[in-house]
Amino acid sequence: MNIEDLAGQRLMAGYDGTTLNDQLKEYIREYRVGGLIFFARNLIEPKQIEQLCRDSQAYAKDQGLPPLLIAVDQEGGPVARLKPPYTQFAGNPGIKSEEDAQEYARVMAKELLEAGFNMNMAPVMDVVPPDFDSIMIGRAFEGGPEEVARLGGYVIQYLQEYGILAVAKHFPGIGRTTLDSHLELPYSHTPRAQLEAEDLVPFQEAVKKQASGVMFSHILYTDLDPDWPASISPAIVSLLREDMGYTGIIMTDDLDMGAVAKQFPIETVIEQFMKSGSDLALICHPGPNIKTAFNIIRKGLESDPNLLAMGRASVQRMLAAKQGI
């Protein structure tokens, strides 16, 4: 791949629209994006969704690009972008057994594949402490770390057996968080030893189950990295990649969210994303940030041999995930 393709493949973009419009064509043609993420604003009914996904993949192929990762947040419960007639699930709190997980994954994968998606931003692997007013209540599996690991592991296993790339989130765990990172930057002062004994347990199972992706949170964990939120932290990327042995795609949460956008200019965020060793940057809203991110990544790859080597490794991980789609 040339530098432009290497740069663009590390971006997953959101857009406004319900068809392959000029904005979406620009993202694919000019910024060479590796993935798209669609939200309720893009998704009306099955035929339109299928056409949108099909047209996007065809246009990427025409532009000489690998297949797109086409992702959606379809957890069930309060986070379900696909509305009826797609099956509506209760989400993680409704999954109590391996049989529940398998049935969820079977139906979910069938409907997502038919619609044209190949990646689901699920399951949530966050652990909610007992009697804690967590931001993740209603989205997390019920129970302690081992039960979250068990049920989440089954969801990952079966989603991927049925043909959908699974993404475990939000590393290293946001179950103790009460502040919404869509709006502000939350801080976590949980000691590393406690994180390892509790919050990281489900993610170790995600590593074991070979989850295609792991999404990082926008929380600043002071005992792991006092300077950078997890999503752009070299220390926390190293924790997952080196200490826990994860070999799949590491991705940020949406870099347009207030937790990072209010704290740092986009230029700083993307430069730090590259230094961190993360693979895929999510920018889920249209605007200049996608162009800015592409240009910064491209310049970094051109000017720094270390960033180029890291970038090639990131794209190789993404291409490996795309082999089966």
Automatic annotation (TrEMBL):
Gene3D superfamilies found in the cross-reference section: Glycoside hydrolase, family 3, N-terminal domain (3.20.20.300)
Record keywords: Glycosidase, Hydrolase
Entries under Pfam families matching the protein: Glyco_hydro_3
Gene Ontology process terms (BP): carbohydrate metabolic process; peptidoglycan turnover
Matching PROSITE patterns: GLYCOSYL_HYDROL_F3
Every Glycoside hydrolase family 3 N-terminal domain range: 19-304
Swiss-Prot/TrEMBL catalytic activity: Hydrolysis of terminal non-reducing N-acetyl-D-hexosamine residues in N-acetyl-beta-D-hexosaminides
Name of the molecule in the record: beta-N-acetylhexosaminidase
Organism this protein belongs to: Desulfatibacillum alkenivorans DSM 16219
